[in-house]
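[step 3/7] inverse_fold.run input=structure_tokens len=226
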């Protein structure tokens, strides 16, 4: 193939891709489940998980269909902690959850863009912010606030985003600062998503997307709504 032909071919591919994305933006996939229904589905799944009655699944089943179909029932912004696996905690199957994971379940620009993508292009009707007990990132943030601890590498940038929750929780003088800060961080992140311009705030305001949050207790397996 000549260079000119190759260039024209690449332009055709990129043009088709751009047209597809613009069409999706104008006509997002129809929602088959509401945000509230999705939330109740997660709550029911967590109850099964706690009772050790999770659904048995054949992970090979439906694999071919998932090649062309991507319709998650919810998006989850979760901590990266290895003990916190949203698909297991909520007893959901392959393709059911669109998961964004980062230490401290903080709302970064890339994570926000991912949540926007799931809502706009995949029709995900629920965004759930999932914090958890004994969060190491939040514990580190408390040590920085109280003891002026110095952390290596890129950790200080992460901790800066957690400090406001620590300070807000600390002002209330709770009996257990770590638990209070974890809960406050979830609530602040929920507010941040609700107010995120220009996409999510509009989708939330008109009811296309619901936002909720909760804290997962590692010991009991329970997710308590924030």
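[step 3/7] decode complete -> sequence:
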């Amino acid at each position: 193939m000549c260079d000119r032909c190759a260039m024209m071919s690449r332009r055709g591919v990129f043009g088709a891709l751009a047209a597809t994305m613009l069409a999706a933006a104008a006509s997002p996939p129809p929602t088959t489940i509401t945000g509230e229904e999705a939330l109740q589905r997660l709550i029911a799944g967590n109850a099964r998980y706690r009772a050790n009655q999770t659904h048995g699944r054949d992970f090979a089943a439906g694999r071919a269909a998932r090649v062309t179909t991507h319709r998650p029932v919810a998006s989850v912004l979760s901590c990266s902690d290895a003990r916190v696996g949203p698909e297991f905690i909520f007893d959901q199957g392959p393709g059911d959850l669109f998961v964004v994971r980062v230490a401290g379940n903080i709302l970064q620009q890339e994570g926000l863009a991912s949540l926007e993508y799931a809502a706009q292009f995949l029709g995900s009707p629920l965004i759930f912010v999932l914090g958890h007990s004994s969060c190491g990132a939040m514990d580190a943030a408390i040590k920085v606030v109280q003891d002026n601890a110095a952390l290596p590498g890129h950790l200080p940038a992460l901790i800066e985003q957690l400090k406001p929750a620590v300070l807000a929780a600390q002002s209330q003088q709770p009996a257990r600062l770590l638990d209070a800060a974890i809960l406050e961080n979830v609530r602040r992140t929920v507010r941040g998503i609700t107010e995120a311009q220009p996409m999510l705030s509009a989708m939330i305001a008109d009811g296309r997307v619901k936002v909720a949050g909760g804290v997962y207790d590692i010991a009991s397996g329970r997710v308590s709504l924030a």
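[step 4/7] annotate
DSSP finds nine helices and five strands in the chain.
The CA atoms of residues 80 and 102 lie 5 Å apart.
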